[in-house]
Amino acid sequence: MSLSMYRKDACVLISSGQGWPDANSRPGVSPPVDFGEMSIGYLVRRGNPRSTVFVIGKRSNYLVNNTDIEPFDPNSSGPRTDPKICLSCHRLKPLSEYPRNQNNRAGPITRPRCQQCYAAESGPSLSERAKREFRQAVGAPDKGDCWQCPICEKVSIADVTASIVVDHDQERRRPRGILCDSCNTGLGRFKNGEDHLQRAIDYLRNYEANQAEA
Ligand SMILES: [Zn+2]
Ligand SMILES: [Zn+2]
């Protein structure tokens, strides 16, 4: 059994970015909807004159005119290729539409999400002033103080051996607590949501349970 949803040779580029949401719509009668030019999808069912395509950025199937579909090698896109595929909208976009992340040994690298998606998903950050006031209010450690992170429980020297950051609730735009940089990034990776964390815990427990049975 395979864990992948679709195989790489089913990958297609939909240049028009247009199609009809599902089999119940009336293609050719109702106008197509726009899911974004240069969208990447996977062929689900070949038909004529339209095929069913799973559009990744929308996480759903669309009927697309065959004339708008061309085979695409997903392995021709990578973190440094121009154009590259955005991790969120899964559209093929020129590198200039991606925010720069940082320089590493091999040169500058851009973020995995395009400007548009990055702005939509990261939300506004806290002002330096709000951070300062929060640090004061909760008695955050000064640089050089010995401190323990409430999540990883690592003991460190504040801002010397570990960076300390004000973690914030993106929805309410409010500071949530003081964490080490690594745990703060970790929460961000888990989308600051309990669903993701719970699934991660379930995944680990499930593995452990299977080990115990074996
Ligand atoms: Zn995007
Ligand atoms: Zn930590």
Layout of strands and helices, then pairs:
Layout: E1 11-14, E2 18-19, E3 33-34, E4 39-45, E5 50-55, E6 60-65, E7 69-71, E8 84-85, E9 92-93, E10 100-104, E11 107-110, H1 115-122, H2 128-138, E12 146-148, E13 155-157, E14 164-169, E15 174-180, H3 181-189, H4 194-213
Antiparallel strand pairs: 1-4, 1-7, 2-3, 4-5, 5-6, 8-9, 10-11, 12-13, 14-15
Bound molecules: zinc ion (2 copies).
The site of one zinc ion has 8 residues, from helix 1.
Describe the structure in your own words:
This protein has helices at 115-122, 128-138, 181-189, 194-213, and strands spanning 11-14, 18-19, 33-34, 39-45, 50-55, 60-65, 69-71, 84-85, 92-93, 100-104, 107-110, 146-148, 155-157, 164-169, 174-180. With 214 residues, the chain is of the alpha+beta class. It folds into 3 domains: 8-74, SH3 Domains (SH3 type barrels), CATH 2.30.30; 77-122, Wheat Germ Agglutinin (Isolectin 2), domain 1 (2-Layer Sandwich); 128-189, His-Me finger endonuclease fold (3-Layer(aba) Sandwich), CATH 3.40.1800. A 5-stranded antiparallel beta sheet has the order 6-5-4-1-7, with no helix packed on it. The protein has a two-stranded antiparallel sheet with strand order 2-3. The protein is elongated. The structure holds zinc ion (2 copies). One zinc ion (ZN) binds at residues 86, 88-89, 91, 113-114, 116-117.
